[in-house]
Design a protein that fits this description.
By secondary structure, the protein is mainly α. It has one domain. It is built from 8 helices and no strands. It has helices at residues 2-13, 15-34, 39-55, 64-87, 93-132, 136-152, 156-166, 176-189. Helix 2 (15-34) packs across helix 5. It is globular and about 55 Å long.
Length: 198
């Protein structure tokens, strides 16, 4: 019973982090099955993060407009970190909006660290997927071809067109999963699920 009480207290004290955690898990599960993070998760997540940052600004020792400003900045950081990959066709819009949702709730610094952790998890997952499918030669070649395209083709729209043509032959990584694992792992590492730290 003491353990349940402790868990309840942790959730009550850190409900914003737990809210983001639950939404990330839900998004990751859906992305794993459908290769898409739906708008009905991402848009309400972003808007709710703005509302939270205004309504609970005092608990964060901020004025309401500072809370909103930090939330909007976090949203912008989340978008900016994944927009380049999306612009060249390397990622879905839902993944970008999901990280923006993290930014709306957790603000910019936590979002940047969560992104870094997610990028590492995503790279490891991609390598494991390639090795399990015994497609190292094919995907290694595709990686270098894409890298060369990024260096030589300066037009993001053209890069997106090339990526769209290549997509049927590509192994797709549901990036909502690395975002969830990396972000939640960051929360755990920093005791954000169990202590008041935002």
């Amino acid at each position: 019973m003491d353990s349940l009480t402790a868990i309840g207290e942790a959730v009550a004290c850190n409900w914003p982090v737990w809210t983001v955690t639950v939404l990330l898990i839900l998004a990751a599960v859906i992305d794993g099955f459908e290769l898409k993070v739906p708008n009905w998760i991402t848009f309400p997540m972003i808007i709710a993060g703005w509302v939270y940052s205004v309504a609970f600004a005092e608990t964060l020792e901020l004025t309401w407009y500072q809370g909103l400003g930090y939330s909007l900045l976090g949203t912008a950081v989340g978008l900016a970190l994944l927009l380049p990959a999306y612009a060249i066709g390397g990622m879905g819009a839902g993944d970008v909006k999901l990280l923006a949702g993290v930014g709306a709730w957790m603000h910019s610094t936590h979002t940047a660290y969560a992104f870094a952790a997610s990028a590492v998890i995503g790279a490891v997952m991609a390598i494991v997927m390639v090795l399990l499918r015994r497609g190292w030669g094919k995907h290694y070649g595709q990686f270098w071809m894409i890298f060369q395209e990024i260096l030589t083709v300066k037009n993001p729209e053209k890069l997106a067109e090339i990526a769209a043509e290549r997509k049927p032959t590509m192994m797709l990584l549901p990036y909502g999963i690395p975002i969830a694992i990396g972000t939640i792992g960051y929360f755990v590492y920093n005791d954000m699920l169990t202590t008041i730290s935002i």
